[in-house]
Amino acid sequence: MYCKKECIAMLLAGGQGSRLYDLTKQTAKPAVSFGGKYKIIDFPLSNCINSGIDTVGVLTQYQPLALNEYIGNGEPWDLDRTRGGLSVLPPYQGNKNSDWYKGTANAIYQNINFIKQFNPDYVLILSGDHIYKMDYSKMLETHKETGAVCTVATITVPIEEASRFGICNTNEDGRIYEFEEKPKVPKNNQASMGIYIFNTDTLIEYLETDEADEKSSNDFGKNIIPNLLNNGEKLYSYRFSGYWKDVGTISSLWESNMDLIGDNPVLNLADDDFKIFSRNFARAPQYHGEKSRVINSLISEGCQIYGTVENSVISGGVIIEDGAVVKDSVIMDDVIIKSGAKVYMSIIDSDSIIGEGAIVGKENADKSNITVIAKYSEIEKNSVIVK
Amino acid sequence: MAFSAVGIIFSSLNDGTLSRLTNDRTVAAIPFACRYRLVDFCLSNLVNANISNIHIVANYNYRSLIEHIGSGKDWDLARRTGGIKVISPFQTATSSSLKVFSRHMEALKSMRDYIDEFKEDYVVLMDSDHVLNIDITDVIAEHEKSGASVTMVTHPISKEYTSKVPRMMISADDGRIKDISMSKTYTQSNPEMSLNIFVMSTSYLQIMLDQAEAKSLNSLTGYFAMHFDRSNYRTYKYEGYVASVSSFLDYYRCSMELVNNKEARASLLWKKEFPIFTRVHNSAPVSHTSTAKIENSMLADECVIEGTVINSVLFRGVHVGKGAVVKDSVLFHGTYVADNAELNCMVTDKDVMISDGVKLSGNPNMPFYVQKNRKV
Questions:
Q1: Per-residue pLDDT tens for B197-212?
Q2: How far apart are CA A130 and CA A153, in angstroms?
């Protein structure tokens, strides 16, 4: 059936996220829990629906089980549509060849037919590993105004960190004349956010050329963008200002969680004008016992708090028993912290049990020394675990 | 599990006695237990027993009920086959008298067409003003095993119990119903109260409706009372926690009981195999700021706590400002308690605004109620 869309999104969600270590051993990075009741992928998906984009292809590859189960038919984001909506796009076996996704560009290349069925004028390329709220429709407007064939979203980063990113060197009007992937000596601090809008024809043309090049690593940042520039195509940057965080490391994931708490949080999730949607489970309300003490924290549904919680983010169904203390930590779903246990500067993945009187993490440790407890761990009582 | 059953929920047959809470909604849509509405418990009980063909009888003020239920997907009831149907009263172009049913039997008669289409073996009838978390599968299994015509779920009540509306009081001998009477209080001869969950075969319901039609009977309890001595009516005793909400005071007391009684919470809300489903709202987790103090309370999502909350039930999106104190109170969603306000023994309806420094207090026997959208 013919179904024309002006702009569709392709969300690259196959990343392993190896720098999240234990947290991504069994889970793809976009399915890592965040902020009590969210997963990282909720942010790009919510951004799509909040930007009026109702057709999203989610490209999965690494450990897709939890991710697939979580996104389901896209209903939590209002993406369960009869025309368009959300489609999960795993690597597949073809008539002539079958292959894993070799790189970001190859992943899109393998799904050109998916794109073509919607005959879109523009394709938005997203990645599933950043925490940010962004209205892509404004970026699309800029893309149309400048007449670019490709627009790259950029954000200002501290110059000393710029060499970790793809840096866009632009003219005054925003036209990109050079793109440097992780330069040793960055010329400026406008980092690519890994978000691109392409004219569909241009995208397909360059993907096909790139695929034919055997030496290419089939990556947007390393190949496609430089090729466009080499051919003198019109590329513009779109400067985004607002909260944006790459949560690819334990310390940045922890930090981003901490940005949600406090009297005036850096990132406000309770904002009705730009909601972040997530798959909600009907858990019981949270209950606080008579001796509970909770300050500066986010607490989710289904929790039972009898102990002390300070400066922490607590996901659904967590039980914190009498006399237990949780400080400066991120506790994921259904963790049980037994009485008298102490948790400091840690990330505890879901379904773990911290035994009575056990101590996890070190109080006031540096954020580069976050203790991580893997899923389904059982920490014996009175044991001490510090990274 | 080999049975098939259909559920019929009566949404509101005692709106009158719950007046304040039902100004803007029907009984089934009354918010309860922090994040639910009364109907959620009926629906979840049925859904947890794999019953997926459910009819809700609505008569008055059912807008909020319909909004709450939506397509039924939150209970997994958005189905091609079965699913959830709201049976509303209707008016025809030629008749100006709106047909509003005020009793169970009238409602059942009015939906006879639907009932004759039921392919399921059993029918489970339920009222929405008894809140409990019961394993309906077991009730039906007992019903099948005993060969009863009707199985009625009952709850032993204490001598102190009084209801605002007459309840069906029952005595049974080894499960077989011996006597039925209507009473607002405990009676020694009939010490069990019917929770108005009735299980019967579809064919029995049809026979009952035929007879009721022939004899112009309009009361279901009346029918049972007329027939128990020559029929095999049996009880299924439910010993877990039940909140029976027949009045505003009942409502307040049951809400406080959930906060103060661990067994009540465990029986109603914390059964792992029997979750209570409700409409979910993508709301953010609760934010406790540096000045928050919270003690023995239940909270739903998206609350912001800057002040003190003791022995209270806070629905979604309640804001408690700095220096404010909320004690022994039930605050419906969107209640905004500004800085330094003090609430004690209060029930505030949806989107109430309590201004800076305002002090309001009811007492445990006469909680103070603030109407929807009011600014105090």
A1: 999 999 999 999 999 9
A2: 13
Find the CB nearest A285 among B34, B287, B294: B34
Are residues B40 and B119 part of one domain? yes
Residues B218 and B317 in one domain: no
CA distance A311 to chain B (A): 9
Put simply, whether the predicted model's pTM sits higher than 0.80 gets the answer: yes
Buried b (16+ CB within 10 A) or exposed e, B154-192: bbebeeebebbeebbbbbbeeeebeebeebeebeeebbb
As beta bridge partners, residue A166 has A181
Say yes or no: A313 contacts chain B, CB-CB below 8 A.
Answer: yes
Rounded Cα distance, B311 and A193, in Å = 47
Domain range holding B295? 287-370
Instruction: Give how far B348 is from chain A: nearest CA, Å.
Output: 18
Instruction: Determine the residue of chain A that is closest to B289 in CA distance.
Output: A296
Tokens 């997963």 belong to residue: A39
CATH of the domain at B173: 3.90.550.10
In B, which residues are within 8 Å of A309 by CB distance? Answer: 288
Contact A145, A236 (CB under 8 A): no
Q: Which residues pair with A237 in a beta bridge?
A: A152
User: Under an 8 A CB cutoff, do B282 and A76 touch?
Assistant: yes
Q: B155 pairs with which residues across the strands?
A: B193
Q: Which residues of B touch A291 (CB under 8 A)?
A: 295
pLDDT tens, position by position, A225-270 = 999 999 999 999 999 999 999 998 999 999 999 999 988 999 999 8
ipTM of the complex in this document = 0.89
Query: B221 and B365 share a domain?
Result: no
User: Which chain A residues contact residue B264 at CB under 8 A?
Assistant: none
Is any Cβ of chain A less than 8 angstroms from the Cβ of B68? no
Question: Is the Cβ–Cβ distance between A162 and A186 less than 8 Å?
Answer: yes
Q: Considering the domain boundaries, does residue B281 fall inside one?
A: no
For residue A300, give the chain B residue with the closest CA: B285
Domains identified in chain B, total number: 2
